[in-house]
Design goal:
By secondary structure, the chain is an alpha+beta fold. The chain contains five helices and ten strands, in the order ββββαααβββαβαββ. It binds coenzyme A.
């Protein structure tokens, strides 16, 4: 059912199907306002809009070359998470009174339950302003709170942003022996 969301800062109404704004207001490096909250199954349309806004080259970075055309099914996979095994956060901004997704981060817990794989993406226009760091800090906290002991991420060796972001959060880096084009990052959580 459609609902009217009221922005906690501007008080403007947003006639979208997205859940009410709960989460954390975030001031970016350049002073712009953003909003981070847990991802919800109601976010599929926002996610699809976000995926469609990324260039094909950038999408290939996000999916490590497993390029998939954005579709509602892909967006649903990224937003309808099994709470026992996964968690995710999205970063939003207000664009003319309407929610606009500018980034997302997820983790999926392994079968043993002691580790998780994570990913993070920030749209090209919003990079280097602290969105990736804010999303990753929320993700790390959420994984720790679940008792997960280590977090892993795979990134293309050519993704400068991911090297800087990973170093900033404290991940250790090694090359993937099976695939020299990929870097594996590892973070001990406890
Ligand atoms: C990696 C990514 C999420 C970073 O997002 P972001 O919002 O730009 O990150 P932040 O603004 O928080 O930046 C963190 C640090 O990295 C630096 N940085 C970000 N992008 C950079 C780039 N392309 N080149 C150099 N430095 C960069 C920032 O300046 C900042 O440095 P600081 O700690 O010295 O201040 C984004 O580049 C992205 O979506 N890349 C494609 C997908 C990907 O590779 N994801 C990672 C693997 S899953």
């Amino acid at each position: 059912m459609s609902q009217i969301n009221v922005h906690p800062i501007t008080g403007r109404k947003s006639p979208t199907n997205t859940p009410p704004r709960t989460g954390w207001p975030t001031t970016l490096v350049d002073g712009a306002s953003a909003w981070i909250r847990p991802i919800s199954e109601q976010d599929a349309e926002l996610e699809l809009e976000f995926l469609n806004s990324l260039s094909p080259e950038f999408r290939s970075l996000r999916f490590l070359g497993l390029i998939r055309e954005p579709s509602l099914d892909v967006a649903r996979e990224l937003t309808d998470l099994d709470p026992a095994r996964a968690a995710g956060f999205i970063a939003l901004t207000d664009q003319h009174g309407r929610d606009c997704q500018i980034g997302a981060a997820h983790f999926h817990i392994n079968a043993k339950g002691d580790g998780c794989d994570c990913s993070v993406t920030v749209s090209e226009a919003w990079q280097k302003r602290g969105v990736g760091s804010s999303l990753m800090l929320r993700l790390v906290d959420a994984a720790r709170a679940r008792g997960v002991k280590h977090m892993r991420a795979h990134a293309p060796a050519r993704s400068d942003g991911s090297h800087h972001l990973a170093a900033r959060i404290g991940f250790r880096r090694r090359l993937d022996r099976r695939d020299p084009a990929t870097v594996v990052y590892h973070l001990k959580l406890r």
